Amino acid sequence: MKKQALGQEIASTSYPGRGIVIGRSADGSKAVIAYFIMGRSSNSRNRVFVEDGEGIRTQAFDPSKMEDPSLIIYAPVRVMGNKTIVTNGDQTDTIYEGMDSQLTFEQSLRSREFEPDAPNYTPRISGILHVEDGKYNFAMSILKSNEGDPSCCNRFTFAYNGIPAGEGRFIHTYMGDGNPLPSFEGEPTRVSIEDNDIDAFTKLVWESLNEDNKVSLFTRMIDISTGKYETRIVNKNQ
C-alpha cells in the first residue's frame, strides 16, 4: 500500500465522519494517536471533548439543545496500565471491561456490532496501543454491516507488531458524504506522520478537517521509552 500524506488524506473528503490515526513520530521516539469527530446534524455538532482521568469523554456543549445522547455521548479514550484504548463509541468500555476479564481486544468486540442508526449503520472503529519497556505495537478494528445489510456484521481486525518511524494507519467511519453514508472499505490507510511535536501534529490534523463539519479533536504522543505522554484537545465549540 502506497503511503499517503496524512493531511491530504483527511482533506480528501468533506465527511470522513469519525477517524482514528495511530502511528509513530518522525524520529521514532513516540507513539502517536489522533481521534476526531465530525457532524452534519445540530445534535452531532453540539459536542465537545473533555478530559476524564487519563482519557477523555464527549459531552454536550449546550445541554439545553441535546436531542438524543445515545451514540454521541461516550468515552472515546480510556487507559488501562500500559494500554490505551480509542474508539468511536461506547465499545471503549466493552474493550476495557473485556480485557480486564482476560479477553483479547478482538474477543472483547465480538459482543458488539455496527451502530443501529439506519440507514447508515455507522461502523464501530476501535484501536488499542501497547507501550511497554521501549516496545510498541497496536491494533485496529472495524465492525460494519455487509454493504448496508443489517442482518450481517463483518468484523475486521488489523494488528501491527511495530511500525516504522514517521508512519501511521488511518481508519474512519465513512468513505465520504452521501445518503446513506458509505462505510469505510479496506485496510486502514498507510499515512505519513512527519512531526515529532504534538502541537504541529494537532494543527495539521485540525486544519485538514472540513471546516463546516469538524467538531472536536484529541491527540496524544506517548514516549515509547518512558510511557509519559502529552495530550491536546481542540473543540470547535468554545
What report would you give on this structure?
This protein is mainly beta. It has a single domain, classed as Glutamine Phosphoribosylpyrophosphate, subunit 1, domain 1. It has five helices and 14 strands. The strands form three sheets. A seven-stranded mixed sheet has the order 1-12-11-2-3-13-14. A five-stranded antiparallel sheet has the order 6-7-8-9-10, covered by helices on one side. A hairpin with a 2-residue loop joins strand 4 and strand 5 (55-60). The longest helix has 11 residues, at 198-208. The mean pLDDT is 97.
Oligomeric category: single chain
Mean pLDDT: 97
In the CATH hierarchy, what is the architecture at level 2? 4-Layer Sandwich
Tally of individual domains: 1
Order of helices and strands: EHEEHEEEEHHEEEEEHEE
CATH 4th-level superfamily: Inosine monophosphate cyclohydrolase-like
Fold blueprint:
Layout lengths: L3 E2 H6 L7 E6 L5 E9 L3 H4 L1 E6 L2 E6 L16 E4 L2 E5 L3 H10 L4 H4 L15 E9 L2 E12 L2 E12 L6 E6 L16 E4 L5 H11 L5 E10 L5 E7 L3
Parallel strand pairs: 1-12
Antiparallel strand pairs: 2-3, 2-11, 3-13, 4-5, 6-7, 7-8, 8-9, 9-10, 11-12, 13-14
